[in-house]
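Anyone else keep sequences and C-alpha cells together like this?

Example one:
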Amino acid sequence: MIKRISVLGSTGSIGRQVLDVIRQNPDRFKVVALTCGKNTALMAEQIEEFHPRLVVTSAKRDAEALAVRFPGSGIAFFSGEDGLERAATCDAEIVLNALVGIAGLAPTYAAVTTGHDVALANKETLVAGGAVIMKEVRKNGVRLLPIDSEHNAIYQCLAGNQRKDLRRIILTASGGPFRGYTREELVHVTAADALRHPNWKMGMKTTIDSATMMNKGFEVIEASWLFDVPIEKIQVVIHPQSIVHSAVEFQDRAILAQMGTPDMRIPISVALGDTERIPNQSEPLDFFGKGRILTFEEPDPENFPCLALALYAAKRGGTYPAVLNAANEVLVAEFLAGRIGFLDIPDLIDTALKAHIVSDASTLNDVFKADAWARRFIWNTLQKGRKI
C-alpha cells in the first residue's frame, strides 16, 4: 500500500532529504501536500516532480504566483497559517513536520487533533508545547514518529523491549564545531565559524543550536516527552564521530545503541517505513576506515551553558521551556545577522528565564503567550543595550 505523505517545510534541509527518500521509493510513498517559506523556485521544481494536490507558501502573493505558473493542474494553493493547517489536516496518512521554530507547533497540534500520525523533525513542538501535544496524542490515539537522529535511534533501541525495563537514555552529541573551546575563545567566534559543523549538514538555525549545545538541551526535553522518561534518566554524552546516534540502557545493564553514518535519510526512512526497513542510498558504515576510533566525553557545562539552561527550564516546567525556546529563536537570528556575539545567546536566555514568572502551559494559548512575552523581553533588552 502506498502511504500518502504531507511534507511541511519541503524546501528546507530535512524536507529535501525527505523528498529524496520518497523519490527513491515511488512504490511506497505519494506526496499529497508540500509547504514552503519563501523558496518558491525550489517549490516549483518539487511541484513538477511530485505533483501534490495541495501547496502552501508563507506569503499570499507567492501562492498566487505559483497558481498562475501551474494552470489547470488541479493543485489547491494556499498561504500562511491557514494553509499550514490545511496541509496538516489533509488526506495524508503521515504528516511530516520539518518546519523550523515555534511555527511548527500549531500544525502539529492540528494534525494530531484530527487523527493524523506525525513524523516529527520540529523540536520546538515538544520543547515549547510538550504537555499540550502529548495530551492530544494520547487522547486521539495517534503516533509521533521521531525523525531527529538521536530520538529515532532511541525509538529503534526500544523496539521489542518493555518500556518498564528502561534504566536510562544515553543521548549522544557531536560537540559541534567549538568542542574543546574555552570561554575566551568563544568570545571571538562568528556565525560563519558556527555554521561549519564537522559532521552534519543542517539548516542554519539548527546548526547554530548545535554549536551552542542548545540543540542537545532541546533534545533532552523532546526525549522526555516522546518516551515518557524523567529528565534525570537522560544522560548527554559527547561523541565527536557521530556514529553512535544514541543508546538505551536497561535494568539488566545491557545497552543497545543504534549506529550508522551521519545521514538524515536513515532516520527519515525508519520513520516513514515504520515497521518496514526502507532501502536508501546512504553510505554504509565502514568499520575499518582510516582512524576509525569511537570516543565519548562528558559535556562542558561551563563553556557551553545552553545545555544547563535547557535542563533548568525543563525541570521548572510550565512556561519556562516556551520562554527558553522563544528567547533562543530570537537570539540565534540576531547572532546570524552579526548583531550579537556567540556568548550573548546563553547570557540573554539566562536573563529571560530569571525574569520570567512561570505559569501553566496546558493550552496552546498559554504557550503562545509565554512565547510572545519572551520575544518582547529579548527585543526590549537588546534595544536598551544598543542605546547605552
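And example two:
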Amino acid sequence: MDEKTLREHLAEAEAQVAKGLQHLAEQRAVIAELERDGHDTKTARELFATLMQSQELHIEHRDRLKRELGIPWWLDAVFSKR
C-alpha cells in the first residue's frame, strides 16, 4: 500500500477511534441514568463491553497504520497533552 493510501486509511481509523470514544461516553451516560432511576443495567453493561472490544480493535488498527507509516508512538503523548 502506498503512503497516500495509508494516510487515508489512518484518517479513517482516527475518525473511528473518535467515534468510538463518543459511543462509549454515551453508553456510560445511559448506564448512569438507568442506575439513577433504579433500572437493571445488565444489557447496557453488556453493550458497553462490546463497544469497548470494538474500540480496542479500532485502536489496534490505527496503531498498526501508524507503525507502517513510521509515526513514533510518543507523538500522540506529546500532542494529546496540549
